[in-house]
C-alpha cells in the first residue's frame, strides 16, 4: 500500500479565519466547517490532502511547506503583495518582502505566516 497523508490538524486562533486566509493566498475554495465534525474547518489542498484547522486556546504554529506549480506560486506572491501581507525569502526572514530566487529545494520560494503563527512555505520548480 502506498502511504499518503490524508489530513493534518492545524492549530488556529480562529479555525475558519485561518482556513479562509490560506484559501485566499493559494486561490482555493473554502467550503465551510466539516459537516459532521463541526470543530474542524477543512481546506482541501488537493485530491489527497486536507488541512483541518482547529481553534485552540493558545495555538503553537506549525511549518507547512508546499510544492506548487509556477502559476500558483506567482498568483500567491501577487496576492501577498496586493494585500500587503508580510512574506519573505527564508524561515527566519519571512517578513522581508523578498522571494527566494535560489531556494534550496526548488528554483523559487516564499514564506508567510498566518495570524496564528503557522509558517507556510511555497516552493516552485521554476
TrEMBL record:
Residues 4-125 form the VOC domain. InterPro entries: Glyas_Bleomycin-R_OHBP_Dase, Glyas_Fos-R_dOase_dom, VOC_core. This is VOC family protein. It comes from Actinomadura gamaensis.
Amino acid at each position: 500500500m502506498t502511504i499518503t497523508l490524508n489530513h493534518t490538524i492545524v492549530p488556529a486562533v480562529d479555525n475558519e479565519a485561518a482556513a479562509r486566509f490560506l484559501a485566499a493566498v493559494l486561490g482555493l475554495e473554502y467550503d465551510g466547517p466539516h459537516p459532521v465534525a463541526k470543530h474542524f474547518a477543512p481546506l482541501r489542498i488537493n485530491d489527497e490532502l486536507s488541512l483541518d484547522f482547529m481553534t485552540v486556546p493558545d495555538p503553537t504554529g506549525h511549518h507547512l511547506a508546499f510544492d506548487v506549480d509556477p502559476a500558483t506560486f506567482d498568483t500567491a506572491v501577487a496576492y501577498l503583495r496586493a494585500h500587503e501581507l508580510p512574506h519573505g525569502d527564508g524561515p527566519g526572514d519571512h517578513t522581508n518582502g523578498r522571494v527566494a530566487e535560489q531556494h534550496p529545494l526548488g528554483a523559487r520560494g516564499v514564506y508567510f505566516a498566518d495570524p496564528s503563527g503557522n509558517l507556510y512555505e511555497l516552493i516552485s520548480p521554476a
